[in-house]
Specification:
SGNH_hydro_sf, alpha/beta, Rossmann fold, 2 domains, 43% helix, elongated, phosphatidylcholine lysophospholipase activity, Ester_Hydrolysis_Enzymes, SGNH hydrolase-type esterase domain-containing protein, 10% strand
Length: 396
């Protein structure tokens, strides 16, 4: 009996051991199959990673994206390029085409056209070109330029403007009005028999002012109306400070001599009064007005500069009211009375050599003058093309 019981227990243990081995074998096989599947999926992921890595670049969290199967948004260069091109095309569609006013066609000048002489330095050269454009369609006005780009009032040993002007006016050249713009080269010492004088010191100021007065006396010898154009602001703050100081000298002496002074400073600064390279041109379109050196102007800038001079010049040519010079009035040789310039209050002034108006031959306005058309005839001012009061049809 005992033997049977021992045999039964051994058989049970053998069966249990076999089952355990089978279970373990099944578990091992399952683990092996699982590992093979992971290896295969990893190999496939590696293949995909190699392809994707060429387009996506490095990312520190990419292994986690692969492990959890996350898909990132396509950021390829082609997509960015497509979006950029679409955005650029959309902006170009929204931006209105810039309308340019056609340049005036130059017409032949009349033999008796008013001759305007532009004198000065390199800024005057550009101003002269701008005035040529402004009066291109006017047969009654002819612009001539006499400039020396490196000249000024300090280096009279290089070019002496008062002396040259006196010699010019002593000749037979006909001039009806003068526009002067000079001073951009004068930021330097004045050297004379008394030594060298530093810029904007008291001694420098006295000598520089005397040279401005001497140039005004040379203009007075011609008996012609003169327009003195001020200097513009520059990119350099120190340079601008000197230009503003020169303008104060020019304006003070010009007003004492009956010369029209055109201050252009505020026309070429921003809202805070600082130098700006861009701004509205004569057509109201924002464009580049100043040259790369921060001193001179572009073609559009010179045309805008000429616009402000043109208004005064037309008035001077129309009425002759550019100031009456009285050379030799004072005993000390200065030009003009101490009280200031003598300006006409009624009607145009007579030109040199013409008889004065009196009761026998009253001075009448010109038939084709703007004053006669508007004040005497009552005709309306001609509207500017595109302005709100331009009712012409069809639209120009």
């Amino acid at each position: 009996m005992a033997g049977l019981m021992r045999r039964s227990m051994l058989e049970r243990r053998s069966i249990l051991a076999r089952r355990t081995v089978l279970a373990a074998s099944a578990l091992i096989v399952a683990v092996i199959v699982a590992l093979c599947g992971v290896a295969g999926s990893t190999a496939k992921a590696e293949d995909k990673r190699i392809v994707v890595a060429r387009n996506e670049g490095f990312h520190p969290l990419r292994p986690l994206f692969r492990l959890f199967g996350a898909k990132r948004r396509d950021r390829s260069g082609a997509s960015r390029k497509t979006k950029r091109s679409r955005g650029t095309a959309r902006r170009h569609q929204q931006r209105p085409a810039r309308q340019h006013k056609p340049a005036p066609v130059a017409v032949p000048k009349d033999p008796d056209a008013n001759v305007v002489l532009v004198v000065g330095d390199s800024l005057a050269r550009g101003l002269g070109k701008g005035l040529e454009v402004a009066f291109a369609d006017s047969p009654k006005v002819q612009i001539r330029s006499w400039v020396n780009g490196s000249s000024g009032l300090v280096r009279d040993d290089y070019f002496n403007w008062p002396t040259e002007l006196r010699q010019f006016f002593a000749g037979d050249e006909r001039v009806d009005a003068i526009v002067v713009m000079v001073g951009v080269n004068d930021r330097q010492r004045i050297r004379d028999a008394d030594g060298s004088h530093q810029l904007r010191t008291e001694e420098w100021e006295k000598r520089y002012r005397a040279r401005v007065v001497d140039m005004l006396k040379a203009f007075a010898a011609s008996g012609k109306p003169v327009i003195w154009v001020g200097l513009p602001p520059t990119r350099s703050s120190k340079f601008s400070a000197d230009m503003a100081h020169f303008n104060d000298v020019y304006k003070a002496e010009a007003e004492l001599s009956g010369v029209v002074f055109v201050d252009i400073w505020q026309r070429f600064v921003d809202e805070e009064g600082r130098y700006t390279r861009t701004g509205p041109d004569v057509e109201g379109q924002t464009t580049i007005l100043r040259a790369g050196d921060g001193i001179h102007f572009t073609g559009s800038g010179y045309r805008k500069l000429a616009f402000y001079v043109e208004k005064e010049l037309r008035r001077v040519l129309e009425t002759g009211a550019g100031g009456v010079f009285l050379p030799g009035l004072n005993a000390d040789g200065t030009v003009g009375p101490k009280i200031g310039a003598v300006l006409p209050l009624t009607g145009p002034t007579a030109r040199v050599g013409e008889p004065l108006a009196g009761e026998e031959t009253p001075l009448a306005p010109k038939e084709d003058s703007l004053q006669n058309k508007v004040i005497v005839r009552g005709e309306p001012l001609p509207p500017e093309t595109g302005r709100v009061d331009d009712f012409g049809w069809p639209r120009r």
